[in-house]
Amino acid sequence: MIFGLCVIDVGISQKPDLGLVYQWTQLEFDYPNAKARQDDIDSGNFDPTSAAPIDVDVHYSYAPNKKNRVFVTIPRFQEGVPVTLGVVTDKKLNNNPIIQPFPSWEWHTNPKRCKRDRLVSVFRVMIDECQRLWVLDTGRVLSEQTCPPQILAFDLQTNMLIHRYEIPEDLIEVNRSILVTPVVDVRDAHGKCKDTFVYVADCQAYSIIVYDVQRNEAWKATHKSMYPYPNYGTYSILGDSFDLMDGVLGMALEPYKPGQDRKLFYHAMSSPTENWVYSAFLRNRSRFIHNPESSPEVFHTYVGERTTQTAAEAIDKDGIMYFGLMSDVTFNCWNTRTEYGRKNTEAISRNRQTLQFASGVKVVTNSKASQEVWVMTSRFQKVATESLSQSEVNFRIQAGRTEDLVSGTICKSGQHSHSRPSGSGGGYGLVKPPTNRYGSTNTNQKK
Length: 447
Known about the structure:
Elements: E1 19-24, E2 28-29, H1 34-43, E3 55-59, E4 69-73, E5 85-93, E6 96-101, E7 122-127, E8 132-137, E9 140-141, E10 144-145, E11 150-155, E12 160-166, E13 179-186, E14 196-202, E15 207-212, E16 217-222, E17 234-237, E18 240-243, E19 248-253, E20 263-268, E21 275-278, H2 279-283, H3 285-288, E22 300-301, E23 313-315, E24 320-325, E25 330-335, E26 345-350, E27 358-365, E28 371-377, H4 380-384, E29 395-401, H5 402-406, H6 410-413
Parallel strand pairs: 2-6
Antiparallel strand pairs: 1-29, 3-4, 4-5, 5-6, 7-8, 8-11, 9-10, 11-12, 13-14, 14-15, 15-16, 17-18, 19-20, 20-21, 21-22, 23-24, 24-25, 25-26, 27-28, 28-29
């Protein structure tokens, strides 16, 4: 499979833009035959008007005769979702690309039975430098904690499960926690890939869970910067409004440099602020094991703010962050070497039709060693207001080369700024007020 990002036609004078890779009016899955699909519809296991994708990641295979693959996630926060993680195929049904369950159908069936080999509900995934797909399974069906949440790793050369960790109950709040974003920190990518940590955003318990893969143990850190802002709990996107109070959701690591620490950038989705913490502090188990709130001094919040909410974020090799802005309906960049805020961010793509609710963002290094940014836009405001129309394109995956998108922008020319962040803080979980069938009963949330 060739994605063709090098042939996006932008004209002579037009700035390079994101190019469309896939789009759907409704999701379709790779059933063995039409009868199996119809049986799932008749039983309520598959509702074509209900399933909504949230995230995307891309695997460029370096093995001969192996195809590149685009992974998508479809969390089970509403009824009628038969598959929660899949690969986009070249096949189509009614002009909608068909999604093949990953790693197989068996992993997705009967999620409430809590089989050992299971995928219950996945919001986001991350592919690391070691050709591993890390999957964060919330274990929730609708608002019920059906199974223990788990972190899984698959070898993308074989599709085999190579690691599994069930997150202990004392690190979550049952029927409240929603684990929405994994960020993988490989400390020895050029070695044996054993020294790995996974940082997990819990958007409803307002915490970051830290998992040490090599030692197979986890702990969590909490700080007020991970909480939502009540004034940012109402979303307005092109005339549709809904309430969503999600805490920490967007997270991204700055580029790895041997011998240096990395900043983990993060934000609550329902907030105007961006925050950061040195990953070395998070990796220090002794700081948090007895008290998740023990180290407020290590968390920092920039003084500058956004004017609207943002969900996922990703950072390229040059330290440039990419993210969508909800009410603005734009895709944007920010050079993380500068102070955060409006004066240092710039819209690199503006399209009110195709950029609605950027719920998944990834920076991917392709087979030619150049970087691309991939974006899933899910039109979640239509999902939240139950106004999705199957006569319109609702979900899109778009991509572009990072160097093209930021060329000539303030993000590319940004210089190092020794700005001083304040010392304290200001997946999206899709949690709604109690009156909405998608959410929990907790109303003090943020995303």
